[in-house]
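re: ur question from the group chat, yeah i did fold both. here u go
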Amino acid sequence: MADTYSFDVVSDFDKAEMNNAFDQSVREIDNRYDFKGTPAKIDWLADKTGIKIIGNSDMQLESILDIIRKKLAARGISQKVLDVSKESHTNNFQITKEVPFLQGLDQTKAKKITTLLREQLPKIKTQIQGQEVRVSSTKKDELQTAMHVLQAADFEFALNFTNFR
């Protein structure tokens, strides 16, 4: 009987790296000359499920968001984990924007992954298991091809591969 190899597709990020990117962003915001004397800063949301960006204009919020994106890219975290779709709020000459982190695969995202893999690689077996998709095959080469197919597909959410067996 042939061995079966597998890996899991998840949408997650390394929390320690996210913490490091946050700390580096705070340091850069504190040292930037154009932010001196302004309310520009970032804070964690409750339980570190996202970040709160505070500034005095939409342009300043975008500048801070660009800093965060650069720090995430330097740490190997996809910027697709940032949900920037929420509107910003204005009060007392400050603009606040909450940016939660996107984690986990819901059913629609998992179905997109499985249908793509079934169309491209019919020999591979896929199985949705809650917040992840298990991809299995008897050949390691097919699994590597599946990883390349998923990386080439430009999903609107971040993908990671874990649990190689």
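okk and heres the other one u asked abt
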Amino acid sequence: MTTDNAMWRHLFKLRANSELTLQAQVREVIAQAILNCHLPAGTLLPPSRSLATLLGISRNTVTLAYQALIDEKYLISRPRAGYIVNPGAPTGASVAPAVAARSHGAPPDWSRRLAVRPSRCPSLKKPPDWQSYPFPFVYGQFDPTLFPVAEWREVNQMAQRTMSVREWAGDRVDADDATLIEQIQQRLLARRAIWASPAEILVAVGAQQAAYLAAAILMGPGTSVGLEQPGYPDVWNICSLFGARVVGAPIDPDGLDASARLSACDYVYVMPSHQNPTTVTMTLARREKLLRAAASGDFVIVEDDYESELIFDGEATPAIKSLDRDGRVIYIGSLSKTLAPGLRVGYLVGPADFIAEARAMRRLMLRHPPANNQRAVALFLSLGHHDALVRKLVQAYRARAQLLTEALRRHLPDVVFTPPRGGSAIWASAPDGVNMTLVAREAARRGVLVDPGEVFFRASRPPQHHFRLGFSSIAGPRIDEGIRLLAQVIAEICLGATGHRSTA
């Protein structure tokens, strides 16, 4: 059985901009055609020279693709006949015989059966195609031009070596990669003067899963937890999901103040390095005061220490966990804001008994995070790539923060903000009466993405004049024009609301 050139031209649509190599694309096309029964058993494929000429690629590329398909039993090679689809080749899943469907009664009333509705929780939304916007002042995203592609490719290739695959490919049940735990100890926690044994460390699928595990183990109906106000919406959502009573604790330029109202809490969740969303850094005095309050009020502190590495000048303030001598601090760390959020690598540090229960809870959710990612991240840390990346990010973010500060002062002089000492965002306040939710909606239509601030408050009537500008994913030369457009939108909306031009 054979086919003509027209059929092969139609079948092969090689793409110059594909992530796959030409050899991989040839293999993919043939394998998919066999799996989908478009190339039945016994089909004779074109000689490698003929197909290479037809596609305008190297004959060696086609020969290697054919050989790989022979190794995987898709093709067989017969002397003087050529390459033929293997009669024993894998095919797609068999199709179940058609059976006439008929109703056996009314469908379930899902509105009554859904015990919880997490989709109704307030959360921050950003367009899934945010990278296509010319002025993405979005928070928590990465800049592809700063991502260490070559270094990440290197460690992934190392993780795919035969010995490495043998180590990580099996079912770990609930264990983590020992090499990654060692690197978290030596490269991440040691930087924050935190000393923990392997039994006190758990790898999570991002800091948010670490927070969820902590809440699942510690919180329930009747539990009281203090949270910063304004604060990260999903921490509020997670605590509320487990029935905890949330106590809002206001922050000021020095961070969270351990006020008397926190003494009645069982737990206090804080983001001391660059608080979300205000970016405020809690002072050392406030951290020590919070520890004293925890001891006197018998509550536990959950420290989410994200972005602690991104300090523009001077030294980072010591982690609360590094000051803890009574075992009252559970620590959450993450690589999302440095390496990449899509990798979902975080970690939880706490007393061994607590970590053992969190590990058991994680096993019920997903057994263990992807072990290949754990090994690749361990190699990325051990080879010094992460330390080099942090230095690169600090340099880039410092320059962008300066440009953003200048643009705000130039185009929005009535907006109040504090120039950042680190991190990747600025929290700003427009004049009273400016609805930043409306501004953000209209600005998005013009290609400018900002985070309106009302979602960070838990109140019946949250303030609407706050907003956040992230600078981790926007190129420096675009910052001034983006802020100029944002100022134009604010002026137009204020003019429409008041009937005269606003100074905002």
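fwiw on the second one: The chain has three domains: 5-85, 123-140+388-498, 149-383. Confidence is low (pLDDT under 50) at residues 498-504. idk if thats what u expected
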